[in-house]
């Protein structure tokens, strides 16, 4: 299973590009920021890999 690297960008199914801010190895959670959101977001690695693709732009 791929683990996103801090500082990389991913795109969700709606075309929104998010920036990876970290990864919690113990809980296997991906931490990221959405544009315009005041707070950071988190998602289990399995869910993140199903819903996001690496941004190539």
TrEMBL record:
<dbReference type="InterPro" id="IPR025317">
    <property type="entry name" value="DUF4222"/>
</dbReference>
<protein>
    <submittedName>
        <fullName>DUF4222 domain-containing protein</fullName>
    </submittedName>
</protein>
<dbReference type="Pfam" id="PF13973">
    <property type="entry name" value="DUF4222"/>
</dbReference>
């Amino acid at each position: 299973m791929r683990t996103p690297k801090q500082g990389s960008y991913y795109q969700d199914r709606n075309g929104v590009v998010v920036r990876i801010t970290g990864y919690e190895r113990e809980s296997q959670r991906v931490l990221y920021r959405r544009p315009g959101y005041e707070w950071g977001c988190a998602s289990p690695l399995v869910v993140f890999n199903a819903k996001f693709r690496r941004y190539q732009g």
